[in-house]
Design brief:
The structure holds 2 protein chains of 2 kinds. Chain A has a 7-stranded mixed β-sheet with strand order 2-8-7-6-5-3-4, with helices on both faces. In chain A, strands 15-21-20-19-18-16-17 form a 7-stranded mixed β-sheet, sandwiched between helices. The longest helix of chain A has about 40 residues, at about 340-380. Chain A is α/β, with parallel strands linked by helices. Chain B is α+β, with helices and mostly antiparallel strands. Chain B has 4 helices and 9 strands; from the N terminus they run βββαβββββααβα. Chain B has helices spanning about 25-35, 80-85, 85-90, 115-125, and strands at about 5, 10-15, 20-25, 35-40, 45-50, 55-60, 65, 70-75, 100-105. Chain B has a 6-stranded antiparallel β-sheet with strand order 1-2-3-9-8-5. A 3-stranded antiparallel β-sheet of chain B has the order 4-6-7, with no helix packed on it. Classes of the chains: A alpha/beta, B alpha+beta. The interface of A and B includes residues 329, 933 and 937 of A.
Chain lengths: ~950, ~120
């Protein structure tokens, strides 16, 4: 070997591939033997239909290692310019408390967790979300708040849609105050378009215009987009008198000093929790919040954490009122929302815990004082203040000096907002130092003498907030550190054990992939910063879009959608726009197989389509005959078919091309749900199967961590004919085509801050590594099927007996002879230290297991050993060694307190808690017993104070 | 003895002495739904058409619409269900009634299934 070749070998540029993929070479060989395949390629040939296989290598650059990708990312970072953005518009500088940054945002114990559907192993993050909900309720003055939405603009659009569902007349008008943030108005306009609603813009405070509008919803900003604070009561009363609902988009920090909208009678209060410790990140991810009156809780979108009791009668939390949600109510759901922004809501909640009510008020008063001093200096410098009442943002009238003022600010290191020809806005935030402030005075050219007035007495907040003890207890760093650790330890995340959730792709979120998201060159960029400051960001986004085009086979990609469900909505709107542009806007039917994710019909409803369900056969495949019937019936009214591939049953359907062709023949478009993309990458593609548009879940297939239920990114890829119909953004030309239908998210590039994660993953895997990941994912699933097959029936297999990247085991057969339900098995897994697989979806009474490529054989074996041990326990119930009512499954999970107490069960303590040797070696103790969902939904409690009341009652 | 009729959506419809009908969901339906946590009922005075979704019943795992079995006007709702939705589990076909209807065409009840026909229908599911 010459030295060049030797050095190349030793360079090991693709070393990360074997770090990302769990099984070693030798393990792969042994696992292949177990599943009865001679090689990985042999297994793939038996799994993926020949007709759709793409054999060409993906057009991706070759793999580079961790150090190299970090250098590359630093290169992009160096092309961004970090100025101090005082633009406002819903995005503000903020200080992530270092204790939260290091122990939450940068801690896999928090960021790798899944949505807390399995409440017993998620009490830590459920409590953290409850803190967030409590802070939101208190600050807004509303009765109930959800566990976060995707961003402020989306939350406003959801509130408008909710108002439409609630109002009793036949109104179609939305009144939007002219000082609502422009991106919020634009996202509402997108939502209004397929519904046939229209927007009437009303001047701030114009009660007569509101009364005349006949609107089902009025949308207000508080403070206004350029900073003005006014009493909203007359406007709220005016819309309510006309039968409509008042939606107020409010700034959380301002609410510490201002009369909350709830006390002014608002029906829904929404906004962003970004400035509670979450970096701006070029627009996201941030937690949108949503609060409403108690009377409307069942119409509220999104997830909701509530307090209930466990089987021992002690307080325990879980997700409440799930029947509102898309996975149960499908097209009748309150929203298509699935992934939200849990990690960011958790951080915002901890920001409130860390500072407490007095700390939050101090921050707000300081920001307010700086704004008042700046206002005074501005007047002395000869500018006119446009608003007398404000919180943190002053709007200056600079006459024809506006451009010069903006330029002077830029030279001093600040981005300020050019409101209009003569208007300049300056929004202060907690990161503004005394030195910054001195520079700002220099920009204005005057010194303040006395702070001007800013908040009229009638709008000064009198009510207390955040008075639950959690907000006043953890104010030393030691106390906070231990509180965070206490909560983290209650939960199962990927840093503890495998999370085999089917359809969720809980793969490795590598440390190198995560590194860049807290670099200031990415984190401290305002979404509306001038283009010359965001060159690096936009280059990274463009390259990632190219990579995703290669993976999907499509002509273009939009990275704007903030979740898979938002991607579905965006993709269906692209289809709607395409049909309308061709004069076929009357197509109104969306065909959806019965096996689809609940988000599909919910998104179709939001896109204004009528859902027609297509039947599935016994094997879980789309029933072609039924599809042809439905196509014959609805013909040219068909707008789209939504299909998941491989199917939600974890099978590569061989007829997929025929299915797509049949829809195309009547002029319909095919939307591919990318939830199962992890089984496709490098082997086939949405374009190859015949789809026109798809979304990808970058938080599944491309390594963005799940964060306990968000953030996510749901980009859409489209074929060439749909390129003109991608989303765009009114404040950013580069975000999409001029012919696009508008934005689906507040920020031009959605959750830009976390795009370095998929970028790093794709760069470090390269075309061969990423394809190998797909193959090993399929191997791992088939290995699980092979090991569990003798103990549990495997429900669906492909034509040659193979499952794709996940497998479904049938647990329905146990009930008749043992009384064991699938839920008992799921809860019992917690005693073995595992998160349950996806339960009762897509088929009731089953578990869907997706190991992903990242789990090695030893961990998969531990999981399978646990499942097999549980099958043995079920056997002991069947042979009547244990009764149907007293056995380790029915009583699962078991807490330490219970084992230390009186023991009267037919099985031993060791059988309960240490059923296998590996369990005892690193025991996970479930913090609560099984949570009572019925009690919680019948006695709804969704904020902190009642939790303590419960605890007292239990003592 | 008042006559009770049934629908394929698992509702019961009882013809009362005052000419109104009382509507609820069958014991089979409550059994299938599991522990009921919420019931939303139509307001008195609302006109409903046969087959129109006019009430909602929710357990922790499922939500079902309840349809108007026949065309008419809602005369009364069972306010007790708002405070105690579990009444539907305890007594689906008596205390757990949903609402009373004044039928547009009282004779239309005869188009529904009687108990025998409903039992046969259940057996065939």
């Amino acid at each position: 070997m010459n030295w060049q070749d030797e050095l190349t070998r030793l360079d090991a540029a693709d070393a990360f591939v074997a770090r990302h993929i769990g099984p070693r070479e030798a393990e792969i060989a042994a696992m292949l033997q177990e599943v009865g395949a001679v090689s990985l390629d042999d297994l793939i040939a038996q799994t993926v239909p020949e007709t759709i296989r793409s054999n060409a290598a993906l057009a991706l650059p070759p793999a580079i290692d961790e150090a190299a990708v970090l250098r590359e990312l630093r290169g992009f970072a160096a092309e961004n310019v970090v100025k101090h953005s005082l633009i406002g518009m819903g995005y503000h500088g903020t200080i992530t408390p270092p204790v939260v940054l290091r122990n939450v945002l940068e801690n896999p114990g928090w960021y790798t967790a899944y949505t807390p559907y399995q409440a017993e192993i998620a009490q830590g993050r459920l409590e953290a979300i409850l803190n967030f909900q409590t802070a939101i309720c208190d600050l807004t003055g509303m009765a109930i708040a959800n566990a976060s939405l995707l961003d402020e603009a989306t939350a406003a659009a959801e509130a408008v849609a909710m108002a439409h569902g609630l109002h009793r007349q036949n109104l179609t008008t939305i009144a939007v105050a002219r000082d609502v943030h422009p991106q919020t108005r634009a996202v509402i306009a997108t939502r209004a378009w397929p519904m046939g609603w229209r927007i009437v813009d009303v001047a701030p405070g114009d009660v007569a215009a509101i009364a005349a509008a006949g609107a089902f919803a009025l949308v207000l900003n508080y403070p206004g987009s350029t900073g003005a604070v006014r009493d909203l009561r007359p406007e709220i009363e005016a819309v309510q008198a006309a039968g409509g609902f008042a939606v107020v988009c409010a700034d959380l920090l301002a609410l510490t000093l201002l009369t909350p909208p709830g006390e002014m009678g608002a029906d829904m209060v929404v906004g962003s929790a970004q400035r509670f410790g979450v970096p701006m990140g070029f627009g996201g991810p941030h937690a949108g919040y949503f609060a409403t009156k108690d009377a409307y809780k069942r119409q509220m979108p999104g997830r909701l954490v509530g307090v209930s009791v466990d089987a021992a009668g002690r307080p325990a939390m879980r997700l409440a009122l799930q029947t509102r949600e898309q996975h149960i109510r499908r097209e009748k759901a309150t929203s298509n929302l699935c992934t939200a922004q849990v990690l960011l809501a958790v951080i915002a909640g901890f920001y409130a815990v860390w500072h407490g009510p007095e700390g939050l008020k101090r921050i707000a008063r300081r920001v307010n004082l700086l704004a008042r001093l700046l206002g005074d200096a501005a007047v002395r410098a000869g500018f006119r203040l446009r608003h007398d009442a404000f919180f943190d943002t002053i709007a200056l009238d600079a006459g024809d000096g506006a451009e010069a003022l903006v330029r002077r600010a830029a030279e001093a290191g600040f981005n300020v907002r050019r409101i209009d020809a003569s208007g300049v806005g300056i929004a202060l935030d907690e990161t503004v130092t005394r030195e910054d402030f001195a520079k700002l005075l220099g920009v204005l050219g005057a010194e303040p003498v006395a702070a001007c007035e800013s908040i009229p007495e009638s709008l000064q907040r009198q009510s207390a907030f955040c008075d639950a003890s959690v907000f006043t207890t953890h104010h030393s760093e030691t106390a906070m550190l231990r509180y965070l650790k206490k909560l983290e330890d209650k939960d199962i995340a990927l840093n503890r054990s495998m999370i085999p959730l089917g359809s969720c792709t809980m793969k490795l979120n590598a440390s190198a992939e995560m590194a860049a998201i807290t670099w200031p060159e990415f984190a401290d960029i305002h979404p509306f910063a001038p283009d010359d400051q965001t060159v690096g960001f936009r280059k990274l986004i463009a390259r990632l879009a190219e990579f995703l085009q290669a993976v999907t086979g499509f002509a273009g990609v939009s990275l704007q959608p903030n979740s898979g469900a938002q991607g579905e909505y965006a993709g269906l709107l692209a289809i709607r726009a395409y049909h309308e542009a061709r004069g076929e806007g009357d197509r109104n039917i969306c065909l959806i197989p019965s096996s689809a994710h609940g988000t599909n019909p919910a998104s179709a409803a939001m896109a204004g389509y009528k859902v027609v369900v297509v039947a599935c056969d016994k094997l879980g495949n789309v029933e072609l005959a039924d599809l042809r019937d439905k196509i014959a019936t609805h013909g040219h009214n068909i707008a789209a078919l939504m299909i998941t591939y491989p199917s939600t049953h974890g099978v590569f359907e061989t007829e997929i091309r025929d299915i797509c062709r049949a829809v195309h023949e009547v002029g319909g478009q095919v939307y591919m749900d990318g939830a199962n993309m992890n089984a496709q990458v490098g082997l086939t593609s949405p374009a190859a199967i015949g789809a026109d548009v798809c979304h990808l879940n970058l938080h599944k297939t491309f390594c963005i961590p799940h964060g306990g239920g968000g953030p996510g990114v749901g980009p859409i890829g489209v074929a060439a004919h749909l390129l003109p119909h991608l989303p765009n953004h009114p404040l950013c030309v580069a975000a999409g085509p001029a012919t696009g239908f508008g934005p689906v998210a507040a920020a031009p590039f959605g959750s830009a801050l976390i795009l370095p994660i998929p970028y790093a993953y794709i760069r470090m895997m390269g075309p061969d590594g990423i394809t190998r990941a797909t193959k090993v994912a399929i191997l791992n699933a088939n290995y699980v099927a092979a090991r569990l097959g003798p103990h549990y029936p495997i429900l669906y297999r492909g034509a040659q007996g193979r499952v794709a990247h996940e497998c479904i085991i049938d647990c329905r057969g146990f009930a008749a002879t043992t009384g064991v339900q699938v839920e008992d098995i799921a809860k019992r897994l917690a005693d073995y230290g595992f998160h349950a697989p996806t339960m009762s979806w897509p088929v009731a009474g089953t578990l869907m297991i997706e190991p992903t490529e990242s789990e090695d054989r030893a961990e998969i074996d531990r999981f399978c050993d646990a499942m097999i041990s549980i099958a043995g326990e079920i056997g002991k119930i069947a042979d009547q060694s244990w009764s149907q009512s007293d056995n380790p499954l029915k009583n699962a999970p078991h807490t330490a307190a219970e084992l230390m107490g009186e023991w009267s069960h037919a099985y031993s303590r060791a059988e309960a808690a240490f059923a296998l040797p590996f369990v005892a070696a690193a025991k996970y103790w479930p913090p609560v017993k099984r949570v009572d969902n019925v009690y919680g939904d019948r006695n709804l409690m969704c904020s902190c104070a009642p939790l303590e009341a419960y605890a007292e009652a239990a003592e | 003895m008042p006559q009770t009729y049934f629908t394929k959506d698992h509702e019961w419809v009882r013809l009362e002495a005052d000419g109104l009908v009382t509507v609820g969901i069958t014991d089979h339906a409550q059994e299938a739904l599991g522990d009921i946590v919420f019931v939303e009922l139509p307001e008195s005075g609302r006109s409903v058409a046969k087959g129109e979704a006019c009430a909602v019943v929710e357990s922790v795992k499922a939500a079902s619409d309840v349809y108007a079995p026949l065309t008419g006007t809602v005369a009364e709702q069972n306010a007790a269900l708002t405070d105690d939705p579990a009444l539907v589990n305890k007594s689906a076909e008596a205390e757990g009634w949903f609402f009373r209807l004044r039928l547009a065409d009282p004779a239309a009840v005869s188009t529904l299934m009687d108990l025998g026909a409903y039992k046969e229908y259940l057996a065939g599911l």
